[in-house]
Design goal:
- Helix content is 74%, strand content 0%.
- The longest helix has 34 residues.
- The protein is mainly alpha-helical.
- The mean pLDDT is 91.
- Helix 1 runs parallel beside helix 9 and helix 3 packs parallel to helix 10.
């Protein structure tokens, strides 16, 4: 099947999406919860997390080599730069480089702040709080804002820019649009699986527990597996868009 020109090419991404979900579900069923946790989540250095990094890294050279955008050279360069920025920041997030950088610059602030500083409450507070409370300098807040802007801000700008074409492409069964919808669905799945343990804990008024069981390993498998799926669909969308606009040079 041609990845863009076949009438059923829009089904490629959904089929890949379902295959990935099936693979994650089977993995969760057959693996011991503790073994699965160690294989999928070790603070950025598990086999699954390390396997994910090359796929994010591959986005950067691929988007320049197989440019998926049309228009003037300036427009293409700006859009490729934006995609490269988001891909690089995804690697930063995976390896917690943002936390490492903030800790190196402001060790006392990070040490005395309860939880990760990369939360909105870090930006709204003037002091860290707690017994060893210290003032939160503007420089520390600036680093947190820069992280949010470069990752989520640039991504949101790209989504807003392409939102209308994406919706039109979805209803016209455009393969690239369907791939990007699977990309977005993978991102939503990651966020839901990341937050579900806390939601369940709060709903049942349970204490915070880091015990690894079948339920927690399920969330871990689909959260970390979903991050790999995001990179896969990004790569697929780039290749599909490049081929489509190469074979349809007059398309918008």
């Amino acid at each position: 099947m041609d990845i863009v020109n076949d009438k059923k090419s829009f089904l490629i991404a959904p089929l890949v999406f379902l295959a990935c979900l099936a693979a994650l579900l089977i993995t969760w069923v057959v693996m011991d919860p503790t073994a699965l946790h160690h294989a999928f989540d070790e603070d950025g250095y598990s086999p699954m997390e390390l396997a994910t990094l090359p796929f994010y890294a591959a986005i950067i050279p691929l988007v320049w080599w197989k440019c998926p955008f049309t228009g003037s050279a300036t427009r293409r360069r700006l859009l490729c730069t934006a995609v490269s920025c988001v891909a690089f920041m995804a690697i930063v997030k995976e390896l917690d480089w943002h936390i490492t950088a903030l800790t190196a610059c402001y060790p006392d602030v990070v040490a005395s702040f309860k939880g990760t500083p990369f939360k909105m409450r870090f930006l709204t507070k003037s002091v860290t709080g707690g017994a060893n409370s210290v003032a939160i300098p503007l420089g520390a807040k600036a680093l947190v804002v820069a992280y949010f802007a470069l990752l989520f801000g640039v991504f949101a700008a790209l989504l807003a820019y392409f939102f209308v074409p994406l919706m039109k492409g979805f209803f016209s069964l455009h393969p690239v649009a369907w791939t990007m919808c699977c990309f977005g669905s993978s991102g939503v799945m990651v966020q839901v699986m990341d937050r579900l343990p806390a939601w369940v804990r709060h709903a049942k008024e349970l204490p915070k527990d880091k015990a690894i069981d079948a339920t927690s390993s399920f969330f871990t498998a689909f959260e970390e597996g979903g991050e790999l799926m995001i990179a896969l669909f990004a790569l697929l969308a780039i290749v599909q868009a490049h081929k489509y606009y190469t074979t349809h040079p007059d398309a918008d």
